Amino acid sequence: MGNFDTVAVGGTFDHLHEGHKILLSQSLFLARKTLIVGVTGPKLLVNKKYAEELESYEDRVRIIREFVARLLPKSGDRIEALSVDIYMIEDICGPTGYLEDIDALVISAETRAGGKFVNDFRLKKGMHSLSIVEIGVITPGGTQNEDFSTKLSSTAIRQRIHLKRKEKK
Fold this sequence. Notes:
The chain has one domain: Rossmann fold. Helices cover 33% and strands 21% of the residues. It has helices at residues 18-30, 57-71, 112-124, 154-168; strands at 4-11, 31-40, 83-89, 104-108, 131-135.
């Protein structure tokens, strides 16, 4: 059951894949009362590779809500009372930079530096630091390298979509 009252997790969550699902599932498992999901807004995505293949913010939020709803029991369990709040990330920290009542931040190994940045930012603003919970990066072969080049990736998914679209022309 949950280790923290309020847990935050953030990302682009584009073309929701198994790595995202594990990150969201673990985040839900850790939260006792509230899960805050930060979803990167369009303004921060203009320079993403294959940006033209990005799902809209609204679609990404809808898909996250549908996935999370499947994980939450309808009745008879404490998770039923869990609140899942979704915020648009419009700056480097997202909701972790302005919501004080957060206990933990779930990150992947490749975003470790971001967790440190968030805590430094919060401390400068007079807020408490967050417990950092790191989830391993998922790769198709099950092993990761230090540069994360073999990880499951929304960029790779967008690239495949882009190439298929190009082939059709």
